[in-house]
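tool_log.txt
---
The assistant was asked to compare two proteins side by side. It first ran the structure predictor on the initial sequence, then on the second. Raw inputs and outputs are pasted verbatim so the downstream comparison step can read them without reformatting.
(1)
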Amino acid sequence: MTTGTDAGKIIKFSIEASSDLWIFGYGTTVSSYVPSTGVTTVLKDDFTDDVTDAVKWGSWIYIASGIAGDKVTYMVIATSAFTEIATAPKCERLFLFDRRLVCGNTDTNISEVHYSRQDQQSGVPWSGADDWTMPGANRLAEDEGTVTFDNAEGVAGFGTNDNQLVTILDKGRLGFRITVIDAATIGLVQDVPIDFQKLGFGGTRGITATSKGIYYINDHGVWIISPGGAQESGNAKIDHKLTTLLGEDFFKNYDSSDSDIVAVETKDLVLVSTRDNSAANNTLLVFDEVAKSWMIWKKAISRFMKIDQEVYGTSSTDTTIFKLFDGSSSASAPMYTIYEQEVPIGAFDELYAMDKFICGGRLSDQTTITIEFDIYDRQWKKLANVASLTWTADGITRRVAGVRSSGVRRDGVRGRIDGITGMIESLLSYNVATRDFLRLVLRFTSQDKSPHEINFFSVLSQFRGIVGQS
């Protein structure tokens, strides 16, 4: 942001307070931005420590400023008045669950999840002493409480799976529910069954929940926790590594400590901002939930914000706010994009050889796309770039010979120009022979300011036998 004593600092949270009011936190400052007028105003610039997280509930925004900062503070959206909640904890992370405000990584215990009493539908929610005070041994269903998983260290963030709160920590995952049981002579009291506790790589702050599961990232890859059975059997504990396709060494220079994740439901995409050998986020990993494929954009984004179904990103290097999926350049500079996908062919022990590749789409006159082919041979050894070509609107213009691959027949077709977008229909097919492989991975790379679409591609291959059989 360009306003106040913290001008130029990286934005840590962004919230749509109303249709014409956005709230941003950076450094020890919270500011507002009115899109219709372009006016930015500092609302508060004296938090004790840098703000770390925020959530919106009704007419209020709740703000965390770390365990060395202030207690959870709420802002009245209509008046921009700020009040520190005297009985609330200091914390790094905030979340909304079951009409409660959930604090994670608190000044009491970095592994602690401290959830408030449920919103009483009267006054400012979660601002009173009873909202955070331990009521004793017999908690009512609506009361506050705490859960910890000390061995997993600090709380990084939260997600939900139905009525289960899933907590991602630095070195593990925790899932629990807030329910009630009928206690003899007492009546209904609060019960908090722990569905699972799992030590492992853990995650960082970038976490988002969708109908397909909870996405999170760590320095080893991007993962999803998928539902896995009835609540009582400990569901939401099946972890699947989504970045296996990118290879074991892909993340060796990555730093996920300040990552963010957002799901774009209308496009079936999940966006992950992270750092690739950089002091600030400089890479955007894009997962296609339908194709199960990855795209890599060189884009410096600190935090995401969704307004309706539009997605915005705040820059991790300057004061820029990007509207994503709007245009084909990055702040008027060429956009570097990689799309990588494994092509499913046969069973895991079946060998195939590639015969033909067919691809169609719409390209601009200035578009240049490089297509590369990686294979895993019969010894399960990865051979990168066994064949490579350059695709333009005029067809195939260049090919680099690969490992033991034979010639290519050029067959590019240039179609009509779209009068609205200026893109040109392009269809190509070519013959290419590779050594026998168990797996095939395609990679499309471009770096330009021109729009293009890859509508389809197809691989024709021939069966070559079973591994280990003569």
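(2)
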Amino acid sequence: MKNVKIILVFAIMLLVTNVFSAIGYETFTVQENEVFTKVLVKVSREFKSLDRIFDIIERNYNNYLGNTGMINNLLNFHLSSNECLNNILIYNDKNEITNTAKAQYNIGAQLFSDNQGAFDNLFGDTYGFSIPVKTDRSYIPVIYITKPIKDSNGRIIGRILMSVDTLKITANISSIISNYDINIVICDNFGTLVYDLDMEEIGRNTLTDPMYKNFTELRELFEKRIIVEKNGEGSYSFYSTGMNQTQKKLVKWNTLEVFGGKLKVCMNSERN
């Protein structure tokens, strides 16, 4: 009787597997899920460390107000303490640099003299992101993150800008996923790709960019699920690695609360 039960259980499992296979149901492996957890921990630590630096600089800026040397030293200290940063500086609402960690940026110079429109969202009342998109594939994208500095009355008296090195983020993520056929994508609440291993896609908006125009399944997944739901799994079709043809991709995501909002960390993998 015991052998009969074992055979029956095995038969049911085989049937379920065949049914899932027939309807195209797939999921990530145990190993891939473990890797994703490691990526989440790594990315969370890196971004939250930047968030803490924002808070420390804002708090000390008010204490050092008027002492340019002390403020620049503060920026230099935090720049050297985080390998993912290219620079930290402070600018005002006239778009003028007032303090900087790197000497090559002249105090009083215009910060966003080139392609000003791409940086409009860096002058708001809260955190802002900007990742300029360029068609030159040799261009290494830079993630700009800003936070306003407010005085005790809540008045904005300056803005902190961090430029984040995408190559460093890539190196840290690749060290975790290098033995697996998966990709990591990070987007904001509006569907803009803050990070992608394919650097040509960084800064593009999954809902509006022409690159995704013909991929309704992808756009709807981001709009109706990834941006909305805290975590989940789904699938969509998009260009395969090398961009030669479309390929089904399985995706899993989770939410990272940082920079006064939410970022979606996604893992995707091509499936046949």
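---
observation on (2): The beta strands are 85-91, 97-100, 128-130, 142-150, 156-165, 183-187, 193-196, 232-239, 246-258, 261-271. The radius of gyration is 23 Å.
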